[in-house]
TrEMBL record, chain A:
Domain NADH:ubiquinone oxidoreductase-like 20kDa subunit, chain residue ranges per copy: 47-156
Keywords: 4Fe-4S, Iron, Iron-sulfur, Metal-binding, Ubiquinone
Record Pfam families: Oxidored_q6
NCBIfam families according to UniProt: PRK06411.1 (NF005012)
GO molecular function, one term: metal ion binding
Keyword field contains NADP: no
Required cofactor(s): [4Fe-4S] cluster
Gene3D superfamilies per record: 3.40.50.12280
Protein name: NADH ubiquinone oxidoreductase 20 kDa subunit
Alphabetized SUPFAM superfamilies for the sequence: HydA/Nqo6-like
Protein family according to the UniProt entry: Belongs to the complex I 20 kDa subunit family.
Keyword Glycoprotein: no
From TrEMBL, chain B:
Organism name: Pseudonocardia benzenivorans
Membrane topology: Multi-pass membrane protein
UniProt GO MF annotations: oxidoreductase activity
Name of protein: Respiratory chain complex I subunit 1 family protein
Major localization listed first in the record, in broad terms: membrane
A Pfam family hit: NADHdh
Amino acid sequence: MLSLWRAIRRLGRAAEPAPAPPVPAGPAVAAELAGSVQVRHVDAGSCNGCELEIGAAFGPVYDAERYGARLVASPRHADALVVTGAVTRNMVEPLRRTYEAVGEPKVVVAVGDCARNCGVFAEAYGVVGAVADVVPVDLEVVGCPPRPETIVAALRLCTGR
Amino acid sequence: MSALGVAGGVLQAVVIVGGAPLLLGLMRQVRARLEGRAGPGVGQPWRDLRKLVRKQSISPRGTTEVFRVAPVLLVAMTLVVAVVAPLVTTASAVPPVADLFVVVALLAHATVVIALAGLDSGTAFGGMGASREVTVLALVEPTALVAIFALSVPTGSTSLPTIVGTALDDPQRLISPASLLAAVALAAVIVAETGRLPVDNPSTHLELTMIHEAMVLEYAGPDLALVELGSAMRLSVYLGLFTSLFVPWGIATTATPLALALGVVALVVKVGVVGAGLAALEVFLAKLRLFRVPELLAGSFLLALLAVTTAYVLG
C-alpha cells in the first residue's frame, strides 16, 4: 500500500493537457446529449488493434472521461456505439440488435479503417461489409489503428466539450 | 412533529437529492486524480442525469410492472429515510418512522425492490446480479441492525434522533469500545450495501464481476436516471447516518436559521470528507473474490455482536 502511495506521489498527473475544445461541427445529437456520452463498444470483427487504442484513449494519458465520455456495460445505458472491425457474418445480427437496444438519441462511431471500408479484410469470405452497410454511421475515425488522439477527438464531437 | 423536525426534514430532502450526485462526482474525481487522470468534474453525474431524463424511455420485451415501478420505489424509500433520519437536525419530521428498525428495513426494502426488477428483466445477468445482491443483503442487514442496536443500548431507545441527541450530550460515549466496534462494523455494512470496493466495483464493465450494476443493465433513459439517483442517494444517506451516529457535532438542536444553516454545512462537510476518504481508500483496494465476501461480512457481524456485548457488560 505504501509503495502504491509512493507511485501515486511520484507520477502525479499523467493526463496530457486538454487540446482546444472542438468547434461545434459534430453530429446534431451532440446538443441533446449536452456534455455526457455513455459509450458502448462493439467489436464486430476487429483484430484488437483498435481495442488497444480505445483502451489507451480512456487511460490516464488521454483521459477521454474528462470530456464526459464513459464506457458502459450495456447498450441500454449507452448513447454512442463505438464499432470496430469489418462486420463479420456472425456479428451482423448482434450489431443490429445492439443498435436497436440503444435508446434515441444515439450516435454510431465507426473506429478504424476496417469499420469504415473493411481495410485489408475487404472481400474476405467471412466479411459482410463495412459498419455503414449494417447500421447508419454518424462519425468515422480514420487510421489502422487510429491514434488515441483521433478517437478522443471524435468522442469530443459527440460530447461537445 | 416539531418545527425543528419539519425544517430538518425539508432541508435534508433538498440536500440529499441535490447533493447525492455531487458526492458521487466528488468520489469519482478523487479517484481520477489519484489515478493520474484529470477527471470529468464534480458535476458530471448531474450532466448524466439531465441527459438520461431527455432520452427515450424503453421497456424491454417481457418485463412487467415490477420492472417499471422499481426505480420509483427505490427513490421514494430512500427519500423517506432522507427526510426522517437525523442528518441535519436531532429532531425528526415523523418521529415514529425515525426508528432504527424502520430505517434499516426501508433501506433493505429498496434493495429488494431493485433485485426483483433484476429478476423481472429475465436476462441471465439480471438474475445473477439479483441473487448476488440478496446474498450480500442477507449477510449485511443483521450487522446493520446489531451495530446500531449497540449504540441504542446506553440510550435505552431505538429512536435514531434520541441516540444522536444523547451522543451530543455525552460525547465521551462516542469513544467507548462499544461505539468504536459498532463504527467499524457499520463501515463494512456501508461499503457492502452501497456497492463499493472491495465488495463490488462500481465502475466495472465486466458483467460477470458485477453485483449491483448487473441488476440494472436493462434500464434506459428516465428509469435509469431514477435508479442512478436512488443509488447515489442511498450512498449519501448511509454516509450521513454514519457521520450523525459517530461524529454528531454541528447537527442542529434548535430551529433557529443559524443552527439549521450550520447543520446543513456540517452534514455536507462531514459526508464530503468521509466520501472522499472512502474513494481514496478504494484506489488501494482490489475487489474481493465473491466467495470471500461472506467472510468479510461475517467478520463485521462479529464486531457488531462484540459491540452489543461490551455495551451491556461495560454499560
